[in-house]
Amino acid sequence: MAPNRVASRRQRGVALITAVLIVALATILATRIGFEGALEQRRSSTAMILDQAYLVGLGAEAWAASYLRKDLQDSKQDHLGERWATPIPPIPIDGGAIEGRVEDMQGRFNLNNLVTPEGVVNPEGVREFQNLLSALDLEPRWAGILADWLDADTQPNFPDGAEDNIYTSQSPPYRAANGPITTVSELLALPEFGQERFQRLRPFVSALPIGTKLNVCTAPGIVIDALSDGTREFGTDPEGLARQREERCFPTLDDLRAAFGEDTFQRVQDYVSESSSYFRVTAVVSIGSTQLSLYSLLHRESSGASRPVMRSLGSD
Predict the structure, then answer these.
(1) DSSP alpha helices (H): ranges in the chain?
(2) H helices within 136-237, ranges in order?
C-alpha cells in the first residue's frame, strides 16, 4: 500500500477519534450544565418554599399569641380544659397544610430553679428534682451535678458536684456554664448523662427564668408528686388525672394543700401557681415535599401581650 494512502487513513482515524472525544466532552459539559441548572432551580424552589413555610409558621405564632391574650381576659387560671390546649389538626393552606399545638412550659419542672437568682444552689429545687429523677428511675445524683453546672461559683458541691476540673478533662474540653441554661438539651453536656436519660426526662422539664413557678393545673402528676417527699397522689393514675382536667384546673392549690398537708404545702407554696406566662407554640408546615417545624417560646405578659423569647427550627 502506498505510503500516502497509509498516512491519509491514519489522519482520518485521528480526526474520527478527535471528533468522538469532542462529542463526548460536549455531552459531559451539557449534562453537567443541565444538572447544575436543575439543582440550582431545585435549591431556589426549596429556599422559596422554606421562606413561605416560615412565614406561615410565624402566622401560627401570632394566632397563638392572640388566643393566649383572649384566654387571659377570660380566666386567671390556665388549665388543660381551655381551648389553647387543644391541638390544631392539619389545616389546608396554599400547596400544603399546617398543624400545631400550644404547650404550657410552666407545667414542667424548671431546671433553672435548682439555683436562686443570686446563683446559689437552691436546696428546695434540688430536693424536688431528686424526687422527680427517682420517680423516673434515674439517679438522684444528677440533681447535684446539674446544680453545680448552674451555680455561679467554681467550687464543686459535696457530694455530687462537678465543676471545671471535670469538664476540662472531656474530649473536647469545655467549662461549666455557671449560669442559667436556655434549653434542656444542655443536660447532654453533663458527662455520661446520655441520650437515654435525656429522652426519659425531657417531657417533664423546661428551661425558664429562675423563680418561674410550676403550674399545678397542667403539670404531669409525677412532677406534682415530686414537690412532696412521700406523697404519690397524682402520678399513679395519669388517665384519671386527665379526666379530672377535661374542664377545670386540677389539682388547685387547695387540693394540693389537702393532699400534701399543711407543713409540706407551706414549704412549696412559693414554687407553685394556677396560671402560666410561658408557652411553647409548635407549628408544622408542609408544602409539597418540604416540611418545616417552628418552635416558639412565648412569654405572655400581664397585659396579655405575648412576645417570642426564643425560636428554633427543626428541633425544640
Answers:
(1) 3-74, 123-135, 141-150, 164-167, 194-201, 221-225, 238-244, 253-260, 262-268
(2) 141-150, 164-167, 194-201, 221-225
Cell of 303: 397585659
Let me know: does 133 contact 305? Beta carbons within 8 Å: no
Arithmetic mean of pLDDT, 37-48: 72
* Residue pair 175/167 in contact by the 8 Å Cβ criterion: yes
Q: Give which of 14, 56, 6 is closest to 285, Cα–Cα.
A: 56
Using alpha carbons, select from 307, 105, 78, 314 the residue that is nearest to residue 207.
Answer: 105
pLDDT digits (tens, 9 = 90+) for 65-124: 999 999 999 999 999 999 999 998 999 998 899 999 999 999 999 999 999 999 999 999
Contact assessment for residue 272 and residue 77, using Cβ atoms and an 8 Å cutoff = no
Amino acid identity, position 215: N
At residue 226, the pLDDT reads 95
Distance CA 209, CA 278 (A): 10
Query: How many CA atoms lie less than 13 Å away from 93 in the CB half-sphere?
Result: 19
**Cβ contact 142:148 at 8 Å:** no
Does pTM surpass 0.70? yes
- Give 275-299 pLDDT, tens digit per residue: 999 999 999 999 988 899 999 999 9
How crowded is residue 149: how many other Cβ atoms within 10 Å of its Cβ?
24
Range scoring the smallest mean pLDDT among 208-222, 266-280, 301-315: 301-315
Angle between helices 123-135 and 141-150 (to 10 degrees): 140
CA proximity to 124, closest of 114, 109, 110, 111:
114
At 93 the three-state DSSP class reads strand
DSSP string, 269-310: GGGEES--SEEEEEEEEEETTEEEEEEEEEEE-TTS-EEEEE
